[in-house]
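Key result, reporting period 2: structure in, sequence out.
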């Protein structure tokens, strides 16, 4: 049995972008010609939130994340309305983290001050690169100067807790160019950096028309060089692609990786809620397309999928998340989060250690080795139940078009 309910977060999906990027496989959509239907979507979100809160009444929120899409296309008053509604339905934990994703090309002067006043205390800025040629090739609507201006606005608003999203292994990029991008990012004084490799995702323009990407060895050399530079600059890597200054790790991200619970509202959002009384862990997914989400007349019509996670799938679902953490996990954590005995995971852990992908520390933590982090997909796949091995991993993880990670 699950000993107690894990921490609870709220994810709010705002699905529109000015333009869809050719590498993006998120549930995002170009802004309609009539503009973002902010009022109608806000009404649907509030109705969705009211319905979702029933499954976890009385539990405090540890974080709220507005992801997209481009949430900074929405007004500060819309963000404030969602936060006010959340506070009425959930008792807020002390110092709750509230993150807003923003595109540097959509920020007007003074906007971040308005978001701060609405309740946002952390911003994730999608810089991606500081090379104008690369940004154009990635289909971004902003240039390097827009990122610099956005960061100036953040500092002016007193929002020093901000993340910069930065990509590497870009088309024809060299190791030196990836380090130059990182140096430009560090000069802006972020509290957190999400540093991740460009990959060709199914269903994207880049998958259909692949750009000339660096080979695997070059990409890995970029990763190692940038990891070293980030450590030198005082950033601690706590997850595969996440680096934070001391005390500035993303609480929202950590809740995902620690197999915490989260309510997901908005088109395509995913959620996971545990019930200690019954021992059940339930995943939900909202309908993906914004038009269908808006067309729903009852909150139940916005739910595209609702399923209880079978016990045999829990070891994989737990490890899919926990193995991304640099510090690893301990047996008691697995037992508390899943309600399963350690013996359900122990044989596979032993096999992963035999292959050199996992190691046990003196404190009893199971930690991915350098080899395990490099071949993370192979390490995670060891924990698949036989029937789950044939299923789509991202769907079972509940992350495909749900929680944003940055």
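The corresponding designed sequence is given below.
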């Amino acid at each position: 049995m699950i000993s107690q309910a894990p921490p609870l977060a709220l994810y709010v999906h705002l699905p529109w972008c000015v333009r869809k990027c050719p590498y993006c496989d998120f549930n995002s959509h170009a802004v309609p010609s009539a503009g973002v239907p902010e009022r109608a979507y806000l009404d649907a979100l509030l109705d969705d939130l009211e319905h979702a809160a029933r499954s976890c009444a009385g539990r405090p929120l540890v974080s709220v994340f507005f992801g997209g899409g481009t949430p900074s296309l929405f007004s500060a008053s819309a963000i404030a309305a969602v936060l006010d509604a959340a506070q009425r339905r959930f008792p807020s934990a002390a110092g709750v983290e509230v993150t807003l994703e923003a595109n540097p090309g959509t920020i007007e002067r003074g906007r971040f001050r308005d978001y701060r006043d609405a309740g946002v205390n952390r911003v994730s800025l999608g810089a991606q690169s500081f090379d104008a040629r690369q940004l154009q090739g990635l289909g971004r609507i902003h240039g390097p100067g827009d990122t610099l201006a956005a960061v100036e606005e953040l500092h002016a608003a007193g929002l020093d807790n901000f993340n910069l999203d930065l990509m590497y292994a870009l088309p024809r990029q060299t190791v030196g160019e990836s380090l130059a991008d990182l140096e430009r990012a560090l000069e802006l004084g972020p509290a957190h950096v999400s540093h991740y490799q460009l990959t060709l995702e199914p269903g994207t323009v880049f998958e259909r028309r692949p750009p000339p990407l660096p080979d695997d060895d070059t990409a890995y050399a970029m990763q190692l060089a940038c990891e070293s530079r980030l450590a030198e600059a005082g950033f601690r890597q706590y997850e595969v692609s996440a680096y934070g200054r001391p005390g500035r790790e993303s609480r929202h991200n950590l809740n995902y990786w620690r197999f915490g619970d989260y309510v997901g509202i908005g088109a395509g959002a995913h959620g996971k809620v545990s019930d200690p009384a019954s021992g059940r862990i339930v995943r939900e997914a909202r309908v993906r397309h914004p038009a269908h989400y808006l067309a729903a007349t009852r909150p139940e019509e916005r739910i595209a999928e609702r399923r209880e996670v079978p016990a045999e799938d829990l070891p994989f679902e737990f490890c899919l998340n926990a193995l991304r953490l640099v510090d690893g996990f301990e047996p008691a954590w697995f037992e508390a989060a899943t309600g399963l005995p350690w013996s359900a995971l122990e044989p596979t852990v032993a096999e992963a250690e035999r292959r050199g992908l996992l190691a046990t520390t003196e404190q009893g933590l199971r930690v991915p080795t350098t080899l395990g982090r490099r071949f993370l997909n192979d390490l995670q796949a060891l924990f698949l139940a036989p029937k789950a091995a044939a299923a789509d991993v991202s769907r079972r993880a509940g992350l495909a078009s749900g929680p944003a990670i940055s």
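The chain has two domains: 8-255, 312-385. Residues 387-402 have pLDDT under 50 and may be disordered. This case is discussed further under Risks and Mitigation.
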